[in-house]
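Subject: Hydrolase

B.,
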Amino acid sequence: MRPCAYFSNGKCIETMEAHIRRGLELIDCLYLARNYGAFLGRLLELNPTAAGDLLRKAYVLHDVGKCLEMFQNRRGGFGYHEFYSYLVARKVLAGFGEAGDIASVAILLHHHDWIRKTIVKRPPSLRLAEECPGLIQALSGLEVPDKIPWSEPVEEYSCVEKTLKRSLRAVYTLLLPIVVADNYAAACNRGGKGSTLGKEILETLKVRGWDLAGCLPGGL
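Prediction pasted inline below.
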């Protein structure tokens, strides 16, 4: 079974692969083709090519938490998936050093769920759906574990807070294109069921004359 990024009434409406590829399309055309890698690289202390590569990898990883077997088997919501994605990203992006930590924090914040009323729960099983690690590895070039590398949320949020204090601007410079690409892909691939932000993004792209704004069935 192919990993799914969005279910409606138990039916997979958008596969993980489709969600990733559509978002990468926007990151490449709207950001990296316009030299965003150079701007990002100055903040991350990376060369422009490496900075752009990190942005693409971070986007590929941003929803990997949705690949948990329990999510894919129950074919419904994906509560706390951004934290589970963060745990995977922190591990697989370790080779980027501080820049990898910054990218992981951007992934954690891609739904802006910093303040929660409940503590993130450890899932009953940490195992990812069978096809997911191979898919994410093929799209990112990173070795992806078959289980979430669990760490206690209280400890992780303490580390995240330190990263935000050190590198707030860099976090948001990575976060912006990830959020835009995420909502763009959802708006394009879910038959008009994307978020309000996704619809606003499409309208903005239309005004700016971007051809990739016409992705929804029937146009805008």
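The chain has one domain: 4-213.

T.
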